[in-house]
């Protein structure tokens, strides 16, 4: 949508071909919470983007700031020692401008009070650099962008999958569809990654990923990547990397769009930082309190999938009931509950109960009670003496009833993609841009590597969409 809107602004005629029907049109955007991460200096940068600038809560809200340097540092934290990539610099530098551009086209946002702030001393304190989301989540974001696209004269043709690229003399001059050939001066591929293809996941990422729950659209099966690579497009980025998250073990693939706003993310389970996670061997396998969950859930989803049986259990006691997000009270949330940890572990099918009880006892005995618990910051309330620490928000599991939620790894989108130039043009293996071919969204490689700060994916779509649309129109 951002590519189409940018191309229209530049004077092009734009036809958008959508593989899905009306219900699923919009790709992975529809499955998101509609949150967008971007650099901003303070509330003055946010207020023009708000749908309701007169919300009475704003007077008691501390948004803080999120500098470009901090955004870059957050990305670097997931790079596995790699330096900031060219694509990441473009993402950071273009993030605020992309939000302002969307706002100028009537795409407005709301503060994420329910998931990104805590109340402290009568004020709403935002804590992770992620502050705004679209009303009605990803569905609302798609519909607002679609309205802007169509208002500018863009045409959207549904249920029209592209089956190939048409070239003449090395230049892309159109596409093949099931209904025939369509000619164009330029083609923008904005058709997502390969997360919905079991075969490509297994081939390009490894066997564990065949078992992953697919959180998003069933239509992102790598079509654009395969087409572009047949023309010699350069692979770019980490093909074994992806956005993943712990998900309810019993969720269905591609689920959630039938739920009302506020519930579409409820199969996700990302409050592990308030408790502990155990694998089937009864062992902890991550530092649940390593950082705010925005900075850990993507790699922790991978970690869960790599455990025996591709399963883990998130264990909590009653002290955290009021802090757990709504996804844990969702009518379809699966869990076991008991009055003692012994009884709880006995109810978890496939768990080594004896080992689990020892792990939980060791954890309880290691909690440092001298540091106050504070979920609004990295509070340093950790454990002492454990080989695998919990660095923040450690509290003893001692208040019944106790609950355990079974989770597995869910895949949202893949990180490996294509190399694009500064205009969004797809780069050939030999280094030249393939004439007439552009790409954006999940198809751009080099944006994310071994993790993902929440909300960056939609912003990447906007930033690289603008580049590709303007480039194609030019």
From TrEMBL:
> Source species, please?
Oceanicola granulosus (strain ATCC BAA-861 / DSM 15982 / KCTC 12143 / HTCC2516)
Q: What GO MF terms are annotated?
A: oxidoreductase activity
Q: Name the UniProt key words of this record, in alphabetical order.
A: FAD, Flavoprotein, Oxidoreductase
- Cite the PANTHER family for this sequence: FAD-DEPENDENT OXIDOREDUCTASE 2 FAD BINDING DOMAIN-CONTAINING PROTEIN, FUMARATE REDUCTASE
Question: Which protein is depicted?
Answer: FAD-dependent oxidoreductase 2 FAD-binding domain-containing protein
Q: Where is the FAD-dependent oxidoreductase 2 FAD-binding domain?
A: 1-456
Q: Which domain of life is it from?
A: Bacteria
Cofactor(s) essential for the protein:
FAD
Tell me the organism's taxonomic lineage.
Bacteria, Pseudomonadati, Pseudomonadota, Alphaproteobacteria, Rhodobacterales
């Amino acid at each position: 949508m951002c590519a189409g809107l940018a191309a229209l602004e530049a004077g092009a005629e734009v036809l958008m071909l959508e593989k899905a029907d009306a219900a699923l049109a919009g790709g992975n955007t529809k499955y998101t919470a509609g949150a967008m991460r971007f650099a901003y200096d303070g509330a003055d940068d946010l207020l023009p983007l708000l749908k309701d600038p007169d919300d009475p809560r704003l007077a008691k809200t501390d948004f803080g700031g999120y500098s470009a340097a901090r955004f870059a540092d957050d990305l670097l934290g997931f790079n596995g020692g790699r330096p900031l990539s060219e694509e990441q610099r473009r993402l950071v530098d273009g993030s605020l401008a992309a939000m302002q551009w969307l706002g100028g086209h009537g795409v407005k946002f709301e503060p994420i009070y329910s998931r990104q702030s805590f109340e402290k001393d009568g004020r709403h304190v935002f804590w992770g650099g992620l502050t705004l989301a679209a009303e009605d989540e990803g569905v609302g974001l798609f519909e607002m962008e679609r309205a802007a696209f169509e208002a500018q004269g863009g045409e959207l043709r549904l249920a029209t999958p592209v089956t190939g690229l048409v070239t003449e003399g090395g230049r892309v001059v159109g596409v093949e569809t099931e209904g025939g050939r369509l000619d164009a001066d330029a083609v923008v591929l904005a058709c997502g990654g390969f997360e919905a293809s079991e075969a490509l996941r297994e081939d390009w990422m490894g066997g564990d990923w065949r078992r992953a729950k697919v959180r998003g659209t069933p239509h992102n099966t790598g079509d654009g990547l395969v087409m572009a690579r047949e023309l010699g497009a350069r692979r770019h980025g980490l093909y074994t990397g992806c956005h993943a998250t712990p998900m309810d073990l019993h969720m269905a693939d591609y689920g959630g769009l039938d739920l009302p706003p506020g519930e579409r993310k409820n199969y996700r389970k990302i409050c592990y930082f308030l408790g502990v996670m155990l694998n089937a061997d009864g062992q902890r396998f991550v530092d649940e309190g390593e950082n705010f969950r925005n900075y850990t859930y993507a790699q922790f989803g991978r970690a869960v999938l790599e455990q025996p049986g591709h399963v883990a259990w998130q264990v909590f006691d009653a002290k955290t009931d009021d802090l757990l997000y709504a996804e844990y009270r969702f009518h379809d949330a699966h869990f076991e509950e008991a009055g003692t940890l012994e009884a709880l572990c006995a109810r978890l099918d496939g768990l080594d109960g004896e080992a689990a009880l020892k792990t939980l006892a060791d954890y309880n005995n290691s909690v440092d009670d001298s540091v106050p618990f504070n979920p609004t910051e990295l509070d340093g309330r950790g454990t002492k003496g454990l080989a695998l620490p919990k660095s923040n928000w450690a509290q003893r599991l001692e208040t019944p009833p106790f609950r355990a939620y079974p989770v597995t790894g869910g895949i949202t989108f893949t990180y490996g993609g294509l190399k694009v130039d500064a205009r969004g043009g797809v780069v050939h293996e030999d280094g030249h841009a393939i004439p007439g071919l552009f790409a954006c969204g999940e198809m751009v490689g080099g944006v994310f590597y071994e993790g993902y700060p929440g909300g960056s994916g939609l912003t990447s779509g906007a930033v690289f969409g603008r580049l590709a649309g303007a480039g194609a129109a030019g």
